[in-house]
Each structure stands twice: as structure tokens, then as C-alpha cells.
Sequence to fold (417 residues):
Amino acid sequence: MLRAVSAPHSSIDVAIQRESLATEASRTARGEPVEVRVEVAFDYPVVFTRGSLRADNPALVRAITRREPAGRHRVFAVIDAGVALARPTLVAELGDYARAHADALELIAEPLVIVGGEPAKNDRAVLDTLLARFFQLGLDRHCCVLIVGGGAVLDAVGHAAAICHRGLRVVRMPTTVLAQDDAGIGVKNGVNAFGVKNALGSFAPPHAVINDLDFITTLPLRDRIAGLAEAVKVALIRDPEFFRALERDAVGLAAGQLELLEPAIRRCAELHLQHIRGSGDPFETGSARPLDFGHWAAHKLELLSQHALRHGEAVALGIALDSSYSARVCGGHGQLAQADLDRILALLAALGLPRWTPALVESIGGSPALLAGLDEFREHLGGELTITLLDAIGRGVEVHAIDRATMSACVEALART
Fold:
């Protein structure tokens, strides 16, 4: 029979141990780092559906239970007040859905209805109310916060959930065009503070996203149109064929026709998700942010207009401005052709999106207030200034400096369009 026998430490063992300790001490003295590499994979489904709260539609219950199909999942819903007003039966529908799937879902309290739009991100009391309610209900990291609303509510509630217990699970149910094709499908959350858009925020991928196109039918026409600005943006930097489709369908899209909005929303979402998945920098650790084409100006214009502009309308203005600049200044391959600029401005007009606002020419202390947005954007990036411009429709390029006199000339040119 063979046995494992433990032998006492020999003098050789002690010598090796002492040498090892001496070696470690030497490394410490030299300040050699201990390298740490942690790889974390994130995954979440984005589901396009209709009638997500019908008992026979399994999309929502599958989304909530996808990691642990067995057992009963505790769910707390937060609803955008604008959505609750437009769809008065929504709270009852949620209750009916939970009862129909009572083996898998438990609504642990009445849904919390909060202010919608930019006030959700501007008022610190909203964030405090959300956090207080989460703790009152004893939510933990295996509970689900279901958010039903537009992009601002998704941002604010998502941020509250991300900083509670270092991250509650979130299922988003975007209810606007802009939220379904952009804001609601990505990995960012945030609130405004110190006069700066998204000054406080977090990267927190959702547990799942349910894009229910029925919510679009309750939107005012202005909001259906505003959300298309993000589709124009991503088409300009990624997909010239999509841009041509938007041109072809512009009249129907401007009328808010759902049969045209549906494929536009889906394609826009696909392009955004392709970037998040394939860019190699989903949490924006670098300075490159091509999906923010037109956004340095948009963020500033929202603030200057005191949020009278919808986010999508501000993005449209930013697109018009940066496209005009691209036609005057060489990007990576050359200047944007005048014919392409004309097409861009014509599409914005055909969709009913703005190309001018008095906020473009506001001044502070004799200086153009808009141009301060460049410095704020660079600070938000956390590095050198990186702005996406266009060489052609479907091809974005990065620049690291903006000539302010030329940009001011572009503002003057837009005033004449």
C-alpha cells in the first residue's frame, strides 16, 4: 500500500522560502505592479413586439426570468407620468399580466409614477425618491426594476438602480421612438447636475429591453418625428442605404405612419447595437464616440433652450451644424460634398426636424454660448476633444480640433436656410 507521508521542513526548504521572501521584498522596493486582468461578458436581449402586456405574450416574463427560469421573481415597476396619462389602463394591465404569470412574477408594490421628460433628470428629488422607495421595499440584486417610459425616465431610474446595492436588475420598456431606437437600448444611464447634461451617470447594461411598438401609437406627432433624428444620425455615420430609405419614406415618416416608423426604429436600433457590440469600447474608456455625432451642440442647445427643445430636435440641429462644418473643413478623406450637405438638410426639413433655433446665436459675456459646449463635451469625454464629422453620407471621421470662427460661420449659414 502506498501512503502519502508529510516530511518535516528541511534546511533546503527554509532556504528557498527565505530566498522567495527576499525576492518579493526586492520587487516591492522596485514598485513592480501585480497585473490584474478581469474579463466580464454582458448580454441582454432587445425584443421587438406588440401587445407586450397581453397575457398570451411571453416576451416580458421571459425577459425577466431568462437567467433563472424557475422560481418567482420580485418585480417593482416605475412608470413615466406622461405614459400613464396617455394610457390610463397601464397600471391595471401590469397587474393583470403579473396575475396571469403568477407562478413566475410577483409585483411587490403598486407601480411608482414619476415625472417624465427632462425634469426626471434635472430634479435631484426624483433620484432620492427612487432610492428611498427601493430601500423601503427591500429590493436586492435579484429583484427586477421594470421601467416603462421615455429616454429621460429610463436614464434617471436606470441610474438609481445602478447605484443601489451596486446594481439592481433593470428591464426597460421604452415608450418613445427615440428611446426605442437609441436611448433605451444601450448601456448608459445618467442625470443632469451642475448645469451639465448627464453630469452624473453610470454604465450599466440592462437585463433586457422590450420594444413594444404599441406605445408609439400614443405619442404626439412631434415626439414621433423628434425620435427620427437619431435614425438620421446613425445612417449618416454608418449606413448610406438606410439614409436613402429615410429619404424615400420621409413624407410618411413625417406623418408618423407606424408601418414606416417600425422598420426605421428597428434598423436604427440594430446599427446602435452593432456599434456597442463591435466597437471594442462599449463603456467609452477612450475619447472616440461616433454615436454622439451632432451631440456636442445638442446637449448645449437643450440647456440653452431650457429644454424647450426635445432631445431629438436638438440632435437634428447638431447634425445640421456639424454637417455644414464638414462641408467647409476636410475630415479624414476630404470635405463633405455640397450635394451631400444639401441632401442632409433637405431630409431634416422633409421629416419636420428643425435646422434653426434662436439658441444657436445666444451669447454669454459677449461670446457665443453654444461654443462653450465644445469645452463641456471634451470634459465629458475625459480626454482630448474628439468630434465626429462626415466625409460622405455613411462615413464618419474623427477630428480633434474645431475652428470656432468656421463653426460660427456655419451657424450664420444655417440662419439663411
